[in-house]
Amino acid sequence: MRKAPDHRYREVLEAARTGTIPTEPRMAALYAIYDNAPCSSDLVQYAFDLHEEEEHRAILDAFLLTRCPLSELKGLFDIDLDVIETYMFLFMDTSVFRNKLEVISYAARYDSSAYGKELVKTAVQVGPDYLHWAYGKPRATIDAREIINRTMIDSYMRGMAHKGNGLTTGVTKEAHKWWATAIKNAELTERINPSTAKQAVEELQIALGQRDETVGPDDFAVPLADILH
């Protein structure tokens, strides 16, 4: 990451310190606020107000860092797109991130309250679906089978945390609890969709050339009596 996403905001603060008015109109309007002068832009004033409220800033930044469509933000928070775009321009320029790794690093070092830090970090790790659940409504209904499958995989992977630890360590003991959950969910998956196991057996039989191709008398389209006579 070559620049911080709030690099324009930082430039304005430096300009206010040195008394150099920025030439870019939105930055000049923000400069006026720090110079105790009337702000010439309602959009900049609104964006500034959002930024100054720490909770609002963290929520907006979390959504923007997940690349959530701005139209969804408008629907969730009733904020005009022009305001959101102005906020992005001044305080959260996501174009500075060249890859997801830089976003993850930024989220890990996010400067905010404990609430804001955890929110931004979780949002980047889990994605915008988590934020929609937390601050609005889920994007779509999640099927029960998908929930079981996701938690099964998550529990299994968390159980893998025991590797490299001794048999009597707390990490290893906790890992076994996660694996118990994974096994339980695996059993639920089989109960909900038993055809999965059946299909796997059939595919294996085909691969081994052992599929039973025998046709029984009742399977003929024409009765056997008509064929024999």
How far is it from the N-terminal to the C-terminal residue, by CA?
A: 85 Å
List SSEs in N-to-C order. HHHHHHHHHHHHH
Largest sheet: none
- Poorly predicted runs: none
Q: What characteristic shape results from the CA principal axes?
A: elongated
Itemize the secondary structure elements and their pairings.
Layout: H1 7-18, H2 25-34, H3 42-52, H4 54-65, H5 70-77, H6 81-91, H7 100-108, H8 114-126, H9 128-135, H10 144-159, H11 170-192, H12 195-208, H13 224-228
Descriptive overview:
The model has no long low-confidence stretch (mean pLDDT 81). The longest helix has 23 residues, at 170-192. This protein has two domains: 7-135, no CATH class; 144-208. Helix 1 crosses helix 2 (25-34) and helix 8 crosses helix 9 (128-135). It has helices at 7-18, 25-34, 42-52, 54-65, 70-77, 81-91, 100-108, 114-126, 128-135, 144-159, 170-192, 195-208, 224-228. The protein has 229 residues and is mainly alpha-helical. It has 13 helices and no strands.
Task: Please supply descriptive tags for the structure shown above.
single chain; 229 residues; mainly alpha; 2 domains; elongated
